């Protein structure tokens, strides 16, 4: 029996995201590619942001979070931390798309008007495109609170690339896809 269309779409999206993220780590020093930074539109199709960098986090993020935390805490040299963590992300981190959650995360300044608009709307569409692939993914939005494992994963991951990132003054938003209404060009 064939998988339902929305499950195939979700799986295709996660495979694609893992592929482009691995390329970004291996060939571009971790710099986000266009496919990692979807355009954000509201339910009426009005553009809220031309690009928003979103993270892909493992379903069980504790192991990678512990690695990121250890690397950040162990060295006062941000370059050393970045290089060691980049090697980790370049290796097999993105090799198992099924191990990743489809909930995408974004870190924003606490006073960002976009964060306020997204939380007020409670829904948006993330419009991903890179190369021959495009996905329009309607999402519910919520803010992750301190102590949430996925919030911790996002924070420690981002500290690799932004050593000055503090727990204070930021919001971590989670985007939960509605795969039944998502679309793709595949």
Describe this protein with a few key phrases.
alpha+beta; 186 residues; 8-stranded antiparallel β-sheet; Pnp Oxidase, Chain A; 5 helices
Structure, explained:
A hairpin with a 2-residue loop joins strand 5 and strand 6 (133-144). The longest helix has 24 residues, at 5-28. The model has no long low-confidence stretch (mean pLDDT 94). This protein is of the alpha+beta class and 186 residues long. The radius of gyration is 16 Å and the shape is globular. The protein has helices at residues 5-28, 62-74, 78-90, 113-121, 149-161; strands spanning 39-41, 47-49, 55-58, 100-109, 123-130, 133-144, 170-177, 183-184. The two termini are 21 Å apart. Strands 1, 2, 3, 4, 5, 6, 7 and 8 form an eight-stranded antiparallel sheet that branches.
Short note summarizing the structure:
The protein has helices at residues 5-28, 62-74, 78-90, 113-121, 149-161; strands at residues 39-41, 47-49, 55-58, 100-109, 123-130, 133-144, 170-177, 183-184.
SSE arrangement:
Elements: H1 5-28, E1 39-41, E2 47-49, E3 55-58, H2 62-74, H3 78-90, E4 100-109, H4 113-121, E5 123-130, E6 133-144, H5 149-161, E7 170-177, E8 183-184
Antiparallel strand pairs: 1-2, 1-5, 3-4, 4-7, 5-6, 6-7, 6-8
- Count of distinct structural domains: 1
Distance between the termini: 21 Å
What is the CATH architecture term? Roll
CATH class: Mainly Beta
Task: Let me know the number of strands.
Answer: 8
The CATH homology group name: Electron Transport, Fmn-binding Protein, Chain A
Element order: H for helix, E for strand: HEEEHHEHEEHEE
Fraction of residues in H or I helices: 25-40%
Radius of gyration: 16 Å
Q: What is the arithmetic mean of pLDDT?
A: 94
């Amino acid at each position: 029996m064939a998988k339902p269309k929305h499950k195939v779409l979700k799986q295709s999206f996660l495979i694609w995201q893992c592929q482009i993220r691995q390329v970004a780590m291996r060939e571009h020093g971790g710099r986000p590619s266009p496919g990692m930074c979807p355009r954000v539109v509201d339910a009426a199709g009005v553009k809220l942001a031309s690009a928003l960098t979103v993270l892909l986090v493992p379903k069980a993020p504790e192991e990678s979070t512990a690695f990121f935390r250890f690397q950040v805490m162990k060295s006062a040299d941000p370059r050393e931390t970045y290089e060691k963590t980049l090697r980790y992300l370049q290796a097999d981190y993105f090799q198992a798309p099924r191990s990743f959650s489809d909930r995408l995360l974004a870190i924003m300044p606490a006073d960002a008007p976009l964060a306020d608009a997204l939380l007020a709307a409670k829904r948006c569409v993330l419009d991903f495109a890179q190369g021959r692939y495009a996905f329009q993914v309607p999402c519910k939005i919520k803010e992750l609170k301190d102590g949430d494992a996925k919030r911790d994963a996002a924070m420690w991951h981002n500290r690799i690339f932004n050593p000055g990132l503090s727990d204070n003054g930021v919001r971590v938003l989670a985007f939960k896809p509605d795969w039944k209404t998502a679309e793709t060009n595949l």
